[in-house]
Amino acid sequence: YVVETLQTSGGGGEETETYQVSFAGPLPIPDNQTQGVSADVIADRSPAGRRVLALVDIDHSWKGDLRVSLVAPDGTEVVLHNRTGGSKDDVKGIYGLDLESAEDMAPLSQVTATGTWSLRVSDHARRDVGAIQSFQLQFAP
After folding, report:
1. Predicted pLDDT of residue 57
2. Class of the domain covering 2-140
3. Where in the chain are the domains?
């Protein structure tokens, strides 16, 4: 399911707005299928002066198998994780804050935020399996 929240705060006469949409799984990731799966969220507003953060919780027993990308409504795609980490488990954290993405996320803050955003996850090797547990897209000042 998808959850949408809007948080507004102000201090010193300046108001800021953080908008987020969430996907809750689990959504199984097909083993050794490069087309993978997509967790989709729909943003119905476009906060001004925003940066895009992707909060991901992906369970997988060999994260080096995985390619993870974020696709904006206009088709702009940014690779967040590209088969790194070897035999370590899971991809969890916040891209744009505590996790470094494989590609620069800056182009995502330039696109229109309204529309369908997709977290695409594909598994590129046999035997180890996993699932997208949750995905949250946050537009922050």
Report:
1. 96
2. mainly beta
3. 2-140
Query: Distances in Å between the alpha carbon of 89 and those of 22, 35, 57, 85, 131?
Result: 23, 21, 11, 8, 12
98: left (phi over 0), alpha (psi -120 to 50) or beta: alpha
What is the identity of the amino acid at 126?
Answer: R
- Over residues 122-126, the mean pLDDT reads 88
pLDDT tens-digit profile of 82-91?
987 878 888 8
**Structural tokens at position 48:** 């001004």
Please say whether the dihedral angle defined by the alpha carbons of residues 53, 44, 82 and 89, taken in this order, is positive or negative. Answer: positive
Beta strands across the sheet bearing 51-60: 2-11, 14-29, 130-140, 51-60, 91-95
pTM: 0.85
Residue 107 has what DSSP assignment? G
Rounded to an integer, what distance in angstroms lies between the CA atom of residue 94 and that of residue 124? 23
**Integer Cα distance of 91 and 85 in angstroms:** 9
The one-letter amino acid code at 11 reads G
